[in-house]
Amino acid sequence: MSRTIHSLRTRTLFYLLLLLSAVALASYWSTSNLLHQSLGQYEERHAQEELERVNVALVTDAQALLGSTLDYGFWDDSYEYLQQPSLAYLDSNFTADSMRNLRVDFTVFLTTAGALHSAFEFSGEQREHLATDSSTLRAVYDGLATLPATLQQQGAYLLRWIDGMPVVLAYSPIRDTDRSQPQRGWLVMGRRLDTNALARLEQLVGTPFQLAPTTTSAPALPTAPGSLRVSRLLADSLGPSAVHLIIQRPPILDPQKRDGDLLLLGNSLLILLLAALAATLLLDRLILKRLSRFSHLAEQRRRNAEQPAVWPVQGDDELDQLALSLNELMAEVHTAHESLYQEARRDPLTGLGNRKFLSERLHLYQAMQRRQPGLTLTLYLIDLDDFKLINDCLGHEAGDALLNSLAQRLGGLLRASDTAVRMGGDEFVVLSLTDDTGPGSHALAQRLLEAVCQPLMFQDTQLAISASIGIALAGPGTSEDELLRNADIALYQAKRAGKSGFAIFSATMHTNVQERMRIEQRLRQALALGQLEVWFQPIVDGESGATRMVEALARWPVDGGYCPPDKFIPVAEEAGLIGELGLYIAQRAIQALPRLQQARPGLVLNINLSVKQLLQVNLVGQLCELVDAERLSRHSVHFELTESAFSESLEVLEEQVNALVAAGFQLHLDDFGTGYSSLQRLQHLPMSALKLDKSFTRLLDEGDERIVKVILSLGELLQLRVIAEGVETEQQRERLQILGCRLMQGYLFAKPMPEQQLLDWLPAPSSTAGSV
Ligand code: C2E
Ligand code: CA
Ligand code: CA
């Protein structure tokens, strides 16, 4: 970019210089031409003036000759001489001296009729007659003939070209001195303008000139190149004569022209230089330099877009206006950029930051942590409990309102160094950077939970919700993914521990979760491939040893052994697989029952049901179908429900339980004594048996019979049978029997086993038959 402007600068200056040079050249050329022209005109005018002077001199000279001729013509002696020619008159008046003085070369006397009277010239001191046929005489006759009558009376002079040279002929009529007598003839005096005569005249006027006959009006003389030549026709008494006066000479003003040219050239060059200098300075300072600065700033901004460029404004010329516009434009761009930047980091629903914002903040805080190692960076991953219910039951509008008010509450709770973002859905993150003085993570988590719990009125409905929080600490080197995953694991833990609580991530938590996830994944696979097995554990009459019931227990063959149900049943419950798993086990067990009943008629099958299963609406129907499909009496299938299932009074559970009973199934309360069910509630549950937990059975070994006794009497009171679990020793069996507990289950009798093994184990039907 700067290169372009540089070239613009040089180019502009170059063209400017070119233009100025052209102007200077043109001005030099035209002024020099004008100078030459006026000098030429001056020179020609000067030559014309000289020509005039020469002309005047020549005319004066000729008129002087005419004057002399008239003197001689109006004279009695001459008058006499024409009548009586006498040598004496000639000798006394026309001497060689007098003629030389008058510069007369020849003299002719004519009669009035124009005939020759006498004609002579001097050759040295000797007067000689002119030859009658000479061209001089012919010219004299011709001249007289051309003279008009008026001129004939007063005399005239003529210029003629005779024998290769100009000759002045002066005519005077011959009269007596008083002019009382008529004219007697003509006196003609001739002056040849030969080389000597011309040299004398030249000397007189001080200007060299030439004379030429009119017949050769083209210059007879060779013209030197550049030389000046002016000419005119010499006039005589008749007007223009037959002789050209020519002045020809080399121009005299050439040195002045040369000097003028040099001066002009110097001037032009000086002006050019000054103009170029001034233009360059002005143009450069006013425009080009500023343009260059503009471009420089633009270039700087292009290299570093973060740095705002401000174009300088000096006054209010066009460039200043341009700079102002650019500055305004840049400010607009900056604002737009800023709002785009904000927009890209904002959650549109709640106005909190989004995931991108979180990631930037995290990097920033981690950088601060690196500089100041005492800082603690904590991430709180907040997930609303059962938010889906609100969305499903009250609509998304209610859901959005809840999220919005929650966002506001979070915002109000946080300090400047805390960041709240919405990750999407019902998941929020608070990122908190604290030093020793900040609240501990427990305190903040508690406050966050309380903020979430505050109810909100939405269209006359009170919305209440809780949240679970997973907390993870970040070190300067923790990656964003790792941090979020840790918080997620803690959240998972918090949810498992019961909702509306928080958990702080730890390394063991991570291993547990990983293990759980591994189990979940493999369990899904095993379920899909039908790899789960059902084993059966007999429940016997402790007294007779007769098998009354069998409990179906799920078995998962893994790596040559079996994964215990205590491990995978909770995973299945959390992963939402329990419905499928429970139904599968129930189906396999129910399908096996007819075969078992063949070996042990009247045998009852106990199937475990998880609370999560009970929450499924169509459960009862499905179970009925399974039992009916095998043409079994519904009385031969009992369901075991753990006591803890009834710790919360959920209407759905009660309905389901009632539905099962209504369908003809009997129910056992499993693991009795470990939960917290009140006796009052127990009284209202439609149970047919209690299962005494194996932990109480074990107490019998230690001689502690109190709880067993209480439970047995409770069973008696509520008319419920009691099945003792975990009977492992003969002592336990004996004590139970003595205390009045008949039904027992435990390793003492049999461990859980596959169907075939059970069939082998069961004694022949005839010997063990009995009622349940
Ligand atoms: P549970 O319902 O209380 O089942 C009795 C557990 O006690 C069984 O453990 C059984 O093997 C064990 N047991 C029986 N006699 C003795 C004994 O003498 N001593 C000792 N120490 N233990 C004895 P298991 O099979 O490992 O099952 C554990 C739990 O897993 C079950 O406890 C039950 O709550 C759950 N479970 C098993 N299968 C299913 C199923 O298909 N569905 C559901 N929902 N839960 C199941
Ligand atoms: Ca059970
Ligand atoms: Ca049990």
Which tags fit this structure?
Cyclic-di-GMP_PDE-like; 8-stranded mixed β-barrel; single chain; binds calcium ion; disordered C terminus; binds ligand C2E; 26 strands; Beta-Lactamase; alpha+beta; Alpha-Beta Plaits; about 775 residues; TIM Barrel
Whole-angstrom Rg: 74 Å
Beta-strand share of residues: 15-25%
Number of strands: 26
Describe the sheet with the most strands. 8 strands, mixed, barrel
Give the structure's gist in a few sentences.
This protein is α+β, with helices and mostly antiparallel strands and 772 residues long. Helix content is 52%, strand content 21%.
What does this structure look like?
The chain folds into 3 domains: 47-249, Beta-Lactamase, CATH 3.30.450; 355-505, Alpha-Beta Plaits; 519-760, TIM Barrel (Alpha-Beta Barrel), CATH 3.20.20. The radius of gyration is 74 Å and the shape is rod-shaped. It has 26 helices and 26 strands. It is α+β, with helices and mostly antiparallel strands. The strands form 5 sheets. Strands 17-18-20-21-22-23-24-25 form an 8-stranded mixed β-barrel, surrounded by 4 helices. Strands 3-2-1-6-5-4 form a 6-stranded antiparallel β-sheet. Helix 11 crosses helix 12 (396-413). It starts with a helix and ends with a helix. It comes from Pseudomonas cavernae. Pfam families: CHASE4, EAL, GGDEF. Residues 516-766 form the EAL domain. InterPro entries: CHASE4 (IPR007892), Cyclic-di-GMP_PDE-like (IPR050706), EAL_dom (IPR001633), EAL_sf (IPR035919), GGDEF_dom (IPR000160), HAMP_dom (IPR003660), Nucleotide_cyclase (IPR029787), Rev_trsase/Diguanyl_cyclase (IPR043128).
